[in-house]
Amino acid sequence: MVSNGDTAEDRGESIRIAAVQFPFIPIVIHDSENNWLSEPDGKINYWLNGKEIAEDFPVLSSVFLPQFSKEMTEHIRTFLSEDYQDWLYITIKDILYSLVKVHDVDIILFPEYSLPLEINSDLKSLIMSYSDGRCIVGGVGSICKNSSERKNRFFICNNNDIVYGEKVQPNNMEIDAGIKEGEGPLIHEIQLRRISQETIFTSVLMCSDSIEKAKDGSRVQDQLIKELNEKELDRNKINLSLIPALSTKTTDMENIGKICAPRFHEIVVLANCSFFGESCIWYPPTPGAKSISTNKVDRGDSACLIADIPLKFLGAPTSTTVGKPTSPQATPKYEIHKIVFRDESQGIKVDSENFFALIAKRLDIAITLSGIAFARCSLNDEIKNIINSSNKWKELQKEISDVAHKDDLSHTSIRSSDIVAFYEMAGTENLYMLMLYMLEQYITDGSTKAKVQDIMSYVQKMSWLPGPNLWPSYSRSNR
C-alpha cells in the first residue's frame, strides 16, 4: 500500500473517491468479425505491442473451415465471451465489496471500455446493488450491430438508478473502427449518503473528451456550454470531473487535472487500464500540501487509488496564481491499494485468476481447436491459414506468459500429430462432442464441469446440436 503518510480513518468533512486501475479486454462488439471479447487473445497483442492485431493474428472464425459449422463457431465464440465475463464479474464483485464494505468509498470510477453492462445483466445488477448512497461510473464500450449507432458509451449508477451517456468526440483509432460522434449528456447530478443535503454536479469526459473540452469551438466544449445553459448552471458548480480512460498516454489528461483542480476548485479523477497506468486524482490546493494530486498508479499495476478530499473549498473559483493555496482546509489524504489475484497475498483480494493467465488459457484452447480443424481436413492451400494461426497464437501465448512472469503459465506446444492421435483416440466423427470434451479438460470448477458433462450427455442422445441457449447458460451457474 502506498500513501501520503496520513491515515484515512478520520474522514471529517470529506468525500472518499476511488479510481480503479485493472486489466481488461476492451468492450468492442460490432459484429461477428469485430468482437474482442470472443477472440482468444482479447486483442491483447494490440495493447502490448501497439500494432493492429489483424495484421498478424486472424480472427477466430477464419481458422475454421466449412467442416466447422457456423453454429459451432458461434458456440466457441460464445464460450470465450462468457468465460471472460465470468472472470470480470468475479473481479469486479470483489473490488466493489472491498471499496464499499471495507473502505466505505463514496464515488468509484472504472476505466473506459471496461464494464459491458448492456450484455451482462448480472454485472449490471451487481453495480446497482452497491450504489445505494454512492455513485459508480465506468465505460460500457461500444456494443452494437447497427453501424449508424456505433458509439462509445459510459454509465453513471447512483442510488440504484443507471443512466448512460455517449463520448462526444471519438479519437482517430475509434473513428477508424467505425465509432460515431456521440451526444452526451456530459453533466450529471448525483446525491451521496454522506452529504445527502447537497447535489454534486459531475462531468464525465471519457479520455479524449477531457482533452477536447479545452479546445475553443470543439464539439465537446460546445456540448458542455449547451448543457450548462439548459441546466442554468454556472461553470463553477461543476465540483467533480471524472475521466474514464483507455489511453497509452495520459500527459494531456494530466495537464487538464493540474489546471482545473486549482483554477475551478474541482476534483479531477482519472482511471486508466493497467496496461498503461498513471491513474491519478487531482484536487484543489490546501495550505501545507506539497502537491495538488495523489501519486500516480504505476503502469502495469492493478490497484485502487483511494483519496479523501475535503469538501468545503469545492466550487470556490480563485483569481490567484494557478497552484497557489487558497483555502485553510485539511490536507487531502490518499492510499494506493494493489489488487491481488489468487496467487498473491497483500492488497485488495479478488478471487479470480491473473489476467494474463486467463488469456494464456484462452490461447491454449484456440491452439487446440485450430489444430483439430487442421486434423479434420486434407492438407491443401486452404489449410495454411490454420497452421499459421496456430503458430502465431503459440508465439503470442509465450509472449503473454513471459509478461506475466509466471512459470506455471508455460504451455507445451501442441503438434498436429498430437491432434490427429487425439482425434483417433476419441473415436468419434462428432466434432462438436470433441470440442466439448476438450473444454471439459480445461475446466477446474466442479459444478461448471458437471454442467458441461450434462451438455455432452445431451448431445450424445441427440442427432442434432443443442440450441444456443444451452451453451452460455452454464458459465455463471457456479456463482
Summary, kept brief:
This protein is of the alpha/beta class and about 475 residues long. Helices cover about 35% and strands about 15% of the residues.
Helices and strands in order, then pairings?
Elements: E1 2-3, E2 14-21, E3 28-31, E4 34-35, H1 44-49, H2 70-102, E5 107-109, H3 121-129, E6 135-143, E7 153-158, E8 161-166, H4 172-176, E9 187-190, E10 200-204, H5 208-212, H6 219-231, E11 238-244, H7 251-264, E12 267-271, E13 280-282, E14 303-310, E15 333-340, E16 348-349, H8 355-376, H9 384-404, H10 416-426, H11 431-442, H12 446-461, H13 470-473
Give a written overview of the molecule.
- This protein has 479 residues and is of the alpha/beta class.
- It has helices at 44-49, 70-102, 121-129, 172-176, 208-212, 219-231, 251-264, 355-376, 384-404, 416-426, 431-442, 446-461, 470-473; strands at 2-3, 14-21, 28-31, 34-35, 107-109, 135-143, 153-158, 161-166, 187-190, 200-204, 238-244, 267-271, 280-282, 303-310, 333-340, 348-349.
- It folds into two domains: 2-25 and 83-349, 4-Layer Sandwich (Nitrilase/N-carbamoyl-D-aminoacid amidohydrolase); 353-442, no CATH class.
- The protein has 13 helices and 16 strands.
- Strands 1, 2, 3, 4, 5, 6, 7, 8, 14, 15 and 16 form an eleven-stranded mixed beta sheet that branches. Strands 9-10-11-12-13 form a five-stranded mixed beta sheet.
- Helix 8 (355-376) packs antiparallel against helix 11 (431-442).
- The protein is elongated, with a radius of gyration of 24 Å.
- The two termini are 30 Å apart.
